[in-house]
């Protein structure tokens, strides 16, 4: 079949022998191929886009977009694939275009203030077209024309209406101000003319009076100037006379002072001269005496001085040598002490390490011993049926606690002369030798109650219950 597309259409062919799609104005459609016509005429899409500015102010942007496929090979292929199963007036294409326009418009509006959107409508429209066109390119669509109408308020947010009212009020107020200003200018101009006339007349009168007064003032000023100059000259002459008198008095006082100073200096100079002469006489006497003494003791003093100098040098030399020897000895002792200190420190460090190791082992042994002791006590408690008193008595007997107590008590009362009583059953020995041993045992047993009482009185300790109780009343009598 040979098919031909109309002026505003293209023929799209798919099927046998065609990898993707083939777009022609006219072509043969072979068996195994399918064909359809796509309309290239633009379509008007009317939207009311709800957007929000950067100040979170909502508004409605009414717009009419004229959109159609772009007459290019790649664009036609994209457009053909888009409407292959839809009509260009279908809701699918309209929703696609509306989604792109609304999305880009909202994103752009969110980055601008309401004032920027309202005043820069042309730039806002241009930005929207550019961003929408970038998105529509992937579907092969092109914006042939777009018209953005006046921005409209969302119900409940009357920003533009209030803005219009504000503009109207500002215009009305400005008109009132202009009228009032015009009236003011008229009245002010009239009053200004009248005032200027009065001012000029007053100015002429004032200037006349000023000139007259100036002339009179200049005459008085010249007279006063001459009087002032005469007075100044007289005052200057009086000041010069007073200054000359003061200078004369100062010179007279200075001359008197200098005369008195000269008299005092003359007297002191005479005294100083006498003192100097007396000093010279005494110095000459002292020098004479000194020379005489030098003559007498010079030789002896020289010999003694040389001898003492030699002795002092020898003593100094010996002391220096001794000091050097002591210093050397001290240095060696310090080095030896430092070496010994280092050795002791090393030994102590090793001993401390050993002690630490021993303490660790001892602690480990105590832990093991404690664990074994716990096992031993649990086993003993289980063997005695959980009887705590029996376990306690067994441990005290097994570990010699009572023997240790008796020993401690004996040591405590040694040398204190304690009160000790001995009881018997009234007989010692006896004829019956077969019962002697039993009698001794019986005597010991009878002695236990008063012994326990005496221990209790002196130490405050009570005997265990299995050994007996203290007697209520002491009925025994010592033998």
What is the rounded Rg?
70 Å
Which term fits the overall shape? flat
Q: Look at the structure and name the CATH superfamily of the domain at 40-157.
A: Band 7 domain
Strand count, sense and closure of the main sheet? 4 strands, antiparallel
Q: The CATH topology of the domain at 40-157 is what?
A: Tetrahydropterin Synthase, Chain A
- What is the tally of beta strands? 9
- Second-tier CATH architecture of the domain at 40-157: 2-Layer Sandwich
Tally the helices: what do you get? 8
Protein name: Flotillin-like
Domain Band: 5-183
Membrane topology: Lipid-anchor
Subcellular location: Cell membrane; Membrane, Caveola
How would you describe this structure to a colleague?
Keywords: Cell membrane, Coiled coil, Membrane. It holds the Pfam family Band_7. This is Flotillin-like. The chain is an alpha+beta fold and 479 residues long. Among the domains are: 40-157, Band 7 domain (Tetrahydropterin Synthase, Chain A); 421-479, no CATH class. Helices cover 68% and strands 11% of the residues. It has eight helices and nine strands. It has helices at 73-82, 91-110, 114-119, 121-136, 159-383, 388-398, 401-413, 436-459, and strands at residues 2-4, 9-15, 22-24, 26-28, 33-39, 43-52, 58-69, 141-148, 152-153. The strands form three sheets. Strands 6, 7, 8 and 9 form a four-stranded antiparallel beta sheet that branches. A hairpin with a 5-residue loop joins strand 6 and strand 7. Helix 2 crosses helix 4 (121-136). The longest helix is centred in the middle third of the chain and has 225 residues, at 159-383. The radius of gyration is 70 Å and the shape is flat. The chain starts with a strand and ends in a 20-residue tail after the last helix. Mean pLDDT is 77; it is low at 475-479.
